[in-house]
Amino acid sequence: MPKVITIERHLLEQQRHFPQATGAFTNLMYDIALAAKLIARETTRAGLADILGMAGATNTHGEEQQKLDVYADQTIYRMMDHTGRLCIMASEEHAEPLHIPDHYPCGSYVLLYDPLDGSSNIDYNVSIGTIFSIHRKISEGERGTMADLLQPGYRQVAAGYVIFGSSTMLVYSAGRGVHGFTLDPSIGEFLLSHPDIRVPDKPKYYSVNQGYERYWSEGIRRYVEWLTGRDPEGTGPGLSLRYIGSLVADFHRNLMTGGIFMYPADRRDPAKPHGKLRLTYECAPLAFIAEQAGGYASDGVNPIRSIQPHDLHQRIPFFVGNRELVERVEEYIRRYDADWVEQYREQTRLAQDEAVSV
Ligand code: P6P
């Protein structure tokens, strides 16, 4: 009989590599897995229950909240707020940090999460996902502060995502490789189905919203020409386009098949000069996963892991996947978008100076 490894067993085995471990991280991951099971149950029923459709409320970014968004956000918070493992949280659905209630103890970990990314796809039965990032507390005192939330990606203790699709998968890394668990709903357990995930050396796909091509910089336009083998020298890899419009689904496919996911800065929306995706609870955790699997992630100028956040919800351009593909887009941006790079560096510096001065 093949060895059945539950996520609990896997976490306990991994914990043995950390002699000082108290079990708090292991229990935190259990809590995340349980929240994922509860959300999975609702997403599979979404077509049946009255949970479909807009909740009526709008989130911090003025986007209409789907009821599943609200349910996922509340479920994660309620699974975490009383355990004594966290000192503070942050969610894509809330402008301000989520503090641990005074009547609950605080712990030494920090959790940032996007409770249900891609939620606009809910009504069309397209895969959606939860993304999470875990840091250690660095501030003084018992309770967490904004400084604990605004840590650069290289300080992440762990990161992962749950993809709610044809099956529910939890993919995570705690710095010792990337491991995928598939939910067996008949027993309510996440079973190890994809140990030690590595980005394949030979990439297959590129993912970008081609509909925005007219808003791209010259560097991005030329890079995509190269990707699809249309560059003058014909040296490009000739990749196929796959784009679902659900970050977790697009990321997961490229992680498994090799490729690059891109959400570049574009001139389409002046309110979002640096693209749409968020650094702290989308790009940084996925960058952690990609690099643990042998890939690389960049904003086109800097490694994602090196970026010091200046705002909880700051947006950045995002390129993630096979290292050589991501490094190549950095080359194209350096070569053809020098003015934009200078402006981006200046805007970032000013924003970081302003954040420090507050
Ligand atoms: P666009 C979904 O709304 C999301 O935040 C990500 O999941 C996805 O990658 C992106 O937006 C798609 O955005 O502008 O291509 O529709």
Q: Alpha-carbon distance between the termini?
A: 60 Å
Sequence stretches where pLDDT stays below 50 over 5 or more residues: none
User: Mean pLDDT, nearest integer?
Assistant: 92
According to DSSP, the number of beta strands is 15
Top CATH class of the largest domain: Alpha Beta
- How many structural domains? 2
Per CATH, which architecture of the largest domain? 2-Layer Sandwich
- Structural class, by secondary structure, is alpha+beta
Shape descriptor reads globular
Spell out the CATH superfamily of the largest domain: Fructose-1,6-Bisphosphatase, subunit A, domain 1
Q: How much β-strand is present in the residues?
A: 15-25%
Explain what this protein looks like in three dimensions.
- It is a single chain.
- With 358 residues, the protein is an alpha+beta fold.
- The strands form three sheets. An eight-stranded mixed β-sheet has the order 4-3-5-6-7-8-9-10, with helices on both faces. It has a five-stranded mixed β-sheet with strand order 12-11-13-15-14, sandwiched between helices.
- Helix 5 runs antiparallel to helix 8.
- The longest helix is centred in the first third of the chain and has 22 residues, at 24-45.
- The chain is built from nine helices and 15 strands.
- Helices cover 33% and strands 22% of the residues.
- The model has no long low-confidence stretch (mean pLDDT 92).
- It folds into two domains: 7-194, Fructose-1,6-Bisphosphatase, Chain A, domain 1, CATH 3.30.540.10; 205-357, D-Maltodextrin-Binding Protein, domain 2 (3-Layer(aba) Sandwich).
- 6-O-phosphono-alpha-D-fructofuranose (P6P) is lined by residues 117-118, 120, 209, 245-247, 250, 276.
